[in-house]
Amino acid sequence: LGAAFGGRVADLRGLLAAGALGEAAAWLRGREPDVPLEAVTLLPVIPNPDKIVCIGLNYGDHVRETGRTVTESPALFLRMTQSQVAHGQPMLRPLESERLDYEGEIAVVIGTGGRRIAEADAWSHIAGYSCYNDGSVRDWQLATTQWTPGKNFFRTGGFGPWLVTADEIAPGQVMTLSTRLNGQEMQRATTDMMIHSIPRQIAYISSFIPLEPGDVIVTGTPGGIGSKRNPPVFMKAG
User: Fold this and answer.
1) Is the full-model pTM beyond 0.90?
2) Are the beta carbons of 221 and 103 closer than 8 angstroms?
3) Distance of alpha carbon 163 from alpha carbon 53, whole angstroms
4) What would the pLDDT profile of 197-236 be if each residue is shown by its tens digit?
5) What percent of the chain has pLDDT over 90?
6) E strands in 20-160
7) How far apart are CA 134 and CA 170, in angstroms?
8) Fewest C-beta in 10 Å: which of 13, 103, 116, 195?
């Protein structure tokens, strides 16, 4: 696409910022691939987002298993770009801990930016969806009331493999999220189980900061996390 667009875009974030997703789809239609997928090293879906906003405690069963309470507003924390890792690449358990936990989530990628976006308009601001593993180093996350360290260890946030564009998923369509560890299903939920819906998340975040094309909203994990199992299950090498 970079060659096809004459250097106008360098990456997916740039494509979204240029409002050229539809143009790219039209250009690609009916064309044969230039490069086989197995010859490509994937990047995180958006390798360089302006911001990654994560929603905590957004499914009732996860709120209950953590002993927390439902809040009127979404609970937010931020991830840093360097904490992300691409599909097919290893998530890194840090030397500082053995408590690296999985959190399967649906990621929303913003296509059209805006400030104070109304919930009724939110779907039109979405470029598409992807998978996210919000890998969490639990002892570092819970060491204080602030979660930043445990949610931002280098290369712990798996993001990918693709952006599924919003034209393939109707506004409000119920999506199913499942998380498997070594082939065993650990989490399963549907998006209608969210406490704060995707439009609510977009409206709330954009009320205090403008959303930009390529921004990522990681919409929350359901119950079944490893640290709350008996005995606990944490991710290990292999």
Assistant:
1) yes
2) yes
3) 17
4) 999 999 999 999 999 999 999 999 999 999 999 999 999 9
5) 89
6) 52-56, 75-79, 84-86, 100-101, 104-110, 126-134, 136-137, 157-159
7) 25
8) 116
